[in-house]
Amino acid sequence: MNYPEDIDDYIDNINNNQEDLPDYIDDDDDNQNDDNQDNIFINPVPGPRVILPVVNNPNNEPINKKKISIPDDMINDNIYKDSLKLYNLRTNTDILYERNTIITESGKKIYFFVKTSKLESGDIPQVDKLIFTNEYNFKVKKNTIPSGINEIIFGVEYNKSIDKDGLPSELEVLEFKCDFNQDLIIDTSPRIEYETYICVLPRKIKKINLGECYNREIKSDSLPESLETLIIGNSFNKRMKFFSAHLKHLELGTGYQHMFKEGELPQTLENLILGNEYNQEFKKGVLPKSLLNLKLGNGYNQKFKKGVLPPELISLELGNKYNQEFDLDVLPKSLKTLCIGNDFNQKIFNHILHEGLLILKLGDAYDIQLVEGTLPEGLQGLKLGDKYNYEFTKGILPNSLTLLGLGSKYSHKIEEDVWPNSINDLVLVGSVHNLPIINNLPFINNIAFINLQIDVNNLPVSIQTISLINKEGIKHLTKIPFGCEII
């Protein structure tokens, strides 16, 4: 197999047939839990070189550098002939168009509007997606953006009102970056007649990202009923009382610290992400039964009581400060992914983790020996942090395990009768403490080193791929099996 740049992406999706695993776990784009780093599963490698075509530059004229916002979902590994090389798109600093440009990606036409003068009717062609330069900051007037556009991204400096019919009625995705902080109102609200300095939203929008600076009250007529995804950044601290009846994904940043009451969150909600300062206890009945994925930031440290977590929950991610013991039957039987941050160091008793759990990650502070029966049969991915240094004995590791990750302090070899035959992939830091296990590996297919610091010359002949997260570690691979691929 080919390891991704971030080993977490592999362990999170270890079962490719498990469609219910959430996409957002350890997502680099999530800026609310940046401090929640797993030392054993990190990605120090810079982003990929990305090449995109310049469609409307037939004369191949020189193009000067210019700042423009490019969203992360445009980053791809596709290679196009006669194209313009773009580097480090994640920083939004080195984009290159000096004039308005159309590109095509995945069959969609995307228009980059880089003018910093006022938008006029006819300026925008018929495209699927519109992206404004970071510097653009003029009010959007009626009918200046053509119909048919279903996604619009405003740049960092945009903070102006938007007239009724300023946005196309077909719009489904709307994103603001940093400075935006205008009152919202749907286009059917009577408030339009007397309110000024408002942003009028069409009624079919499904996804809104209000950016980092947004901190306005959300009223009953602020958001359309069609809304399925709402993301608000770290400045937002107004208590939310009104939610779309169709909302599926809610993400609130560091500033939000208000307790949710029973019945407030919609019964359609599937994904809930709360920021690093949120530390309010969830009462029974607050989290809707529809919830599948719950991610709580680094500040959360409230003990869960029986019946609080929804019965169909698939994924639970708890931040670095979480350090509460789990009682029997607190975790739902539906749970497939459990990730706990670096401060957690509570004993996990037998039968706390139900069969059906696929992935378990425990942070760097975890220093309690696992015993037979702790890990459920069916577990496929196990990650242990830096402090864990207990020898595995027979029966501790379930026979279903396919990936094992160990920290920099792990210093024991694993006997052949202890090692499940199902394990194909091993992730190690590659420190001097790891030598006993490195020199006594069973027949596995793939190994990854996070930061290889010791010479390796005794890998089993079964190794097919060696992944080096820190590429400088290649100098320590003094002997590799024949036919092995280094990636």
Helix coverage percent: under 10%
Estimated structural class: mainly beta
Q: Mind telling me the C-alpha Rg?
A: 25 Å
Any low-confidence stretches, pLDDT <50, length ≥5?
1-7, 13-96
**Total beta strands:** 23
How much of the sequence lies in strands comes to: 15-25%
Order of helices and strands: HEEEEEEEEEEEEEEEEEEEEHEEE
Whole-number average pLDDT? Answer: 82
| Overall spatial form | globular
Tell me the number of helical segments per DSSP (H or I, 4 or more residues long).
2
Describe this structure in words.
With 487 residues, the protein is mainly β. The protein has helices spanning 7-12, 435-438, and strands at 50-53, 83-86, 101-105, 108-113, 129-132, 151-153, 173-175, 183-186, 198-201, 207-209, 229-232, 249-252, 271-274, 293-296, 315-318, 337-340, 359-362, 381-383, 403-405, 425-428, 446-449, 465-468, 485-486. The chain has 2 helices and 23 strands. The strands form 3 sheets. It has a 19-stranded mixed sheet. It has a two-stranded antiparallel sheet with strand order 1-2. Strand 20 (425-428), helix 2 (435-438) and strand 21 form a beta-alpha-beta unit.
What are its keywords?
single chain, 487 residues, mainly beta, 19-stranded mixed beta sheet, two-stranded antiparallel sheet, 23 strands, 2% helix, disordered N terminus
